[in-house]
Amino acid sequence: MINTNTNALGIIFPNVYDELVSELTSERLMASIPFAGRYRLIDFVLSSMANCGIDNITVLVRENYFSLLDHLGSGREWDLTRKNGGLNIFPPFAQKNMGVYGGKVGMLESIVGFLKSQKEKYIIMADANIAFNFDFKALLDAHIESGADVTAAYTKEALPAGLLESEDIRKAMYYTLDLENGQVKKIHINSKEKGPQNYSMNIYVFERERLIQLVDEAFIGGGVYLERDILVPKLGELNIQGYEYKEYVARVSSLKTYFDENMKLLDNANLEALFDRSPIYTKIRDDNPTRYINGSKAKNVMVADGCVIEGEIENCILFRGVKIGKGAKVKNAILMQDTVIEEGVEAEFVITDKKVKISKDKEIKGTDTFPIYVSKRQVV
Predict the structure, then answer these.
(1) Which of 109, 204, 293, 348 could form a cystine bridge with 219, CB 3.0-4.6 A?
(2) How far is 253 from 55, CA to CA, in rounded Å?
(3) Which of 7, 38, 30, 2 is nearest to 285 (CA)?
(4) Closest CA relative to residue 137, chosen from 151, 157, 116
(5) Of 132, 236, 127, 210, nearest to 173 (Cα)?
(6) What pTM did the predictor assign?
(7) What is the band of 136 on the pLDDT scale with cuts at 50, 70, 90?
(8) Does residue 61 contact residue 67 with C-beta atoms inside 8 Å?
(9) Given pLDDT bands bounded at 50, 70 and 90, which one contains residue 2?
């Protein structure tokens, strides 16, 4: 892990976009969604910040955060167990005057006293619905060099079909940017434009004192959302620079995109693009190596430790402790931690949550456009 100190405080919003994947977030938040065999989505942004020398990171949780607290612990795996700085987790009602947060303005206002007491000059903010291996040091360097008031990271890609087709804007507000010589001239909220867009990653760099001022002003005026109530009204006043991120990105915006983005990692080129730049850390679970019993078959799979394979698996991602029974055939599936597939089962285009059991000789099949989801601890 890189130990150079970066003059920035990290803030992560782990609940943003929970409603887009309500199937997976009924008992957890977006940041806790398992991804890529052994990780949670928050591991990617948290590891990226830690690898870039950001050693003071705040996580602002709102609800369903028990699994996240269990996963993060003291932050030891990310080298964030420190006397000063380190990992700070702020739940609602952490202070007498705090309530349940409505948006990022309220979240930030609730910790203004904390932010005022910090020493870092800059604040880098990010959501936890994207898997990437981000160089936050390069982002901060670009922000300083440009002299911007705000720097906003974006990718150039088409908007996901799930967002374009959504009729309920309350589920999620997403943003696209119009740029002129690198400067953001307009921010579109929930655009329905097709084709490549400057699609915001909701990653921003501010000077700490300037952000506190902006948040105070917006909160007093009844503001709720950072983009809508701070950035959009002040486009003519603030110098907001765009920062195009050109490396590998996996966004989760629906159950279908969750399935697709996981399955893309069965392609070695995508796997290397996501993991090769810097290590991604996660909570350690001491397990035995995976065992492939005589007669088992495996083709194009990602299998974590602690699994026992007696049947056949193809185009599958298996999390820790999964068991595939004798004679079972599983294809195009994501099986989360401690899933049990009993003998003779045939399963295809399936996502099972943690501790699911599919009992003997059952057949369960979805399609590539509509994978079947089995919720946590269910027995089929």
Answers:
(1) 109
(2) 29
(3) 38
(4) 151
(5) 127
(6) 0.94
(7) very high
(8) no
(9) very low
